Amino acid sequence: MSTVQPYSISVSDDELSQLSEKLSHAKFPDELDEAGWDYGTPLADVKKLATYWKDEFNWRNAETKLNQLPNYQCTVQAEGFDPLQIHFVHAKSEVENAIPLLFIHGWPGSFIEVSKLLPLLADGKTDGPAFHIVAPSLPNFGFSEGVKKRGFALAQYAEICHKLMETLDYPEYVTQGGDWGSMISRILAEQYPHACKANHLNMVPGVEPSLSHPILLAQYLLGLVPTHEQRGLERTQLWQKSGMGYFHQQSTKPQTIGYALADSPVALLAWIYEKLKDWTDDYPWTEDEVLTWVSIYWFSTAGPAASTRIYYEALHSAKFRADEPEKWVPSVKLGLAYFPKEIMLFPRSWTRSIGPVVYENENSSGGHFAAWEKPESIAGDLRVMFGRGGGAYGVVD
């Protein structure tokens, strides 16, 4: 079994100097009058953030804050691939019988998203149970090692997460995830139901109900879809029509966009900031927040281009394609959190057809990065879902 070692994030002075040099010589495109956000990230926003990144943002301060998290590293190997050094946050509760919780990020997020949840869930002083929280940097992301062989798809990301929990001596655990974290949670549920006992998801997959779910099918066919659910489906359809350019690029030719992301910090900034702005519910991003998120990608161990490959691999895998999370998994309990500015919002007759739903929460505000935007809501869901009287109470022995 791999040895778990404390880990400290340490970006070299040479890397910081190189970043400053690149920002100093950045060349910006022109922009049409009154373009707004219709054409992508506005020029004025990118220039302002790039200038702040160059002249005022202090990575060392951000690095110090990140190193206050309980960071660790160990070696984990997916079958058929080389071993990988995996970075992760591990906040172990002192409360007896705390529940092991695997927090899984997506793109363009990272392990940093768990930081607002840690003080809300670890001590168990508030209503509900305490949690041992594990939040890895997925392979190709953050401070985990990159994969050098093609074919590393959702099954492999799930395998790495599961083996990490085994390494930490958590034979049973629950998960929380959005974006790819939601999809990987569902693969864990299907592949390792003896260990992955429940999922809490804030980007909820869904599929039109079939004859195998007659009540849900009848509700859908009879048009029994509340107005707010219909609005959510319309938002999803709009995103599919006009917001998936990044998805098509990263799932078909990730290497091509990778040259820009690896060489130009401004390109990386614009690519990620568009999503931070578009996918949140008027969240008041500060310059320091945005640039910490982007800098984690810029200084990532595998480089910023590596993170895009999950899209290609997920859609080209022979075993688990990106639609695999929509399968019904009978034995793993589900908690579903709906946020009005999420990029995918399906009718409940669709989302309830993927597994036994024991908890649902309709939020009046919030978007895609729920753990960052609305940490109290996510923490509250987990305390109720896994607390005494909750639908997933006692799922972990």
How would you characterize this protein structure?
The protein is of the alpha/beta class and 397 residues long. Helix content is 40%, strand content 13%. It contains 16 helices and 9 strands. The chain has helices at residues 13-24, 43-55, 59-66, 118-121, 154-167, 180-191, 214-221, 227-242, 245-252, 254-263, 265-278, 287-298, 309-316, 348-351, 370-373, 375-386, and strands spanning 5-6, 71-76, 84-91, 99-104, 131-136, 173-177, 196-201, 333-338, 357-362. The chain has a 9-stranded mixed β-sheet, sandwiched between helices. Helix 9 (245-252) packs across helix 10 (254-263) and helix 9 (245-252) crosses helix 13. The radius of gyration is 21 Å and the shape is globular. The two termini are 23 Å apart.
Main-sheet strand order equals 1-2-3-5-4-6-7-8-9
Whole-number radius of gyration? 21 Å
The biggest beta sheet, please?
9 strands, mixed
Structural class of the helices, strands and pairings? alpha/beta
Task: Detail the poorly predicted runs.
Answer: none
Principal-axis shape = globular
Share of residues in strands: 5-15%
Number of contiguous helices: 16
Q: What is the string of helix and strand elements?
A: EHHHEEEHEHEHEHHHHHHHEHEHH
Gap between N and C termini, in Å? 23 Å
- Quote the average pLDDT: 93
- Beta strands, count: 9
Helix content: 40-55%
